[in-house]
Design brief:
The protein is of the alpha/beta class and 315 residues long. The protein contains twelve helices and twelve strands.
């Protein structure tokens, strides 16, 4: 146990009709909150690092913090399986650097490229990664929204074609595939009623039996955090995410990995704002970041237990 690839993790999730949470990490408090929640829930977990996180915190710091979290879970008497994953790698060189530095999983995102170029880039990463015992997530289709360096206008979004998905997996040898069925990056996912193309998901699953699929842009944007942010001086009206009911349904049809980032940001920011307003005398970072860490832990544990269904899946 400790740092692992997602191979066995996804196999169990697929067969058990649940999903593994893939949570974006940017600092110590986020990593601590996520791992403490996973340890308490006895759940495997994926910690993923985006290009923005690499720029902000430095990949070396983040990897050492993940190693510290594994050691901490050992001392707590419940070492869990953790995947260290590169989120939205946009080049072979970036994926190679992460593989060489000890990541156990990488995502190569060639979704903005023409199909043939996406295949060629993904295949190149797969060949290098597999030679080093690392697994690869790829992406087909285009999600709208903004996440770090990933920016896609709503008019340019594109659902994943089931025909292309089958061909893409065959040609690239990727280990999992992120698909576009209506989710989007960021906190402003839907203008109207949240909907996902479950019909597309079902067709891809039927045609790729046993193959793990991934949902990006799957934060639920909890309204209690949005309201708290706005109540304590924020300005994020109209933020809406994917309902937890839709995420639970997706997990029944081959979705083994669900990415969550905005919910962590909202939980942290809401509680830090609340602390500043209610206790203006506070200037100790340990106080307001401690509140933020607790909020992350509580939110992640809720996701594991009530949404993803990965609680007690470490046996």
């Amino acid at each position: 146990m400790g740092l692992v690839t997602s191979t066995e993790m996804f196999k169990k999730a697929y067969e058990g009709h649940y999903a593994i949470g893939a949570f974006n990490v940017n600092n110590m408090e986020i990593i601590q909150g996520i791992v403490e929640a996973a340890v308490e829930a006895n759940s495997p977990v994926i910690l993923q690092v985006s290009s923005g996180a690499r720029k902000y915190a430095n990949q070396i710091y983040l990897k050492k913090l993940v190693e510290a979290a594994i050691e901490d879970s050992k001392q707590r008497g419940n070492e869990i399986d953790i995947v260290l994953h590169l989120d939205h790698g946009d080049s072979f060189e970036l994926c190679k650097d992460c593989i060489d530095s000890g990541f156990t999983s990488v995502m190569i995102d060639g979704s903005k490229l023409p199909f043939e170029e996406n295949v060629a880039l993904t295949r190149k990463v797969v060949e290098y990664a597999h030679a080093h015992g690392v697994v690869v997530e790829a992406e087909l289709g285009k999600l709208a929204g903004v996440e770090d360096d990933v920016k896609v206008e709503e008019k340019d979004a594109m659902y994943t074609s089931p025909d292309e998905a089958v061909e893409f997996v065959k040609l690239t040898g990727c280990d999992s595939l992120a698909i576009a069925i209506g989710t989007s990056h960021g906190a402003y996912k839907f203008k109207g009623e949240p909907k996902l193309r479950i019909d597309i998901l079902k067709e891809i699953t039927d045609r790729l039996p046993g193959f793990p699929l991934v949902l990006h842009g799957a934060s639920s944007v909890p309204q209690e955090f949005v309201s708290m942010c706005n109540e304590y001086g924020g300005n994020i009206p109209g933020a809406r995410g994917v309902t937890e009911e839709l995420l639970r349904e997706a997990a029944k049809y081959g979705v083994c990995k669900i990415n969550i980032d905005s919910d962590i940001r909202l939980a942290m920011t809401a509680n830090i704002r609340k602390c500043f307003v209610e206790s203006p005398e506070v200037f100790d970072p340990r106080t307001y970041l401690g509140e933020a860490r607790r909020a992350v832990k509580d939110m992640v544990k809720h996701k594991i237990v009530d949404v993803l269904g990965s609680e007690n899946k470490m046996q």
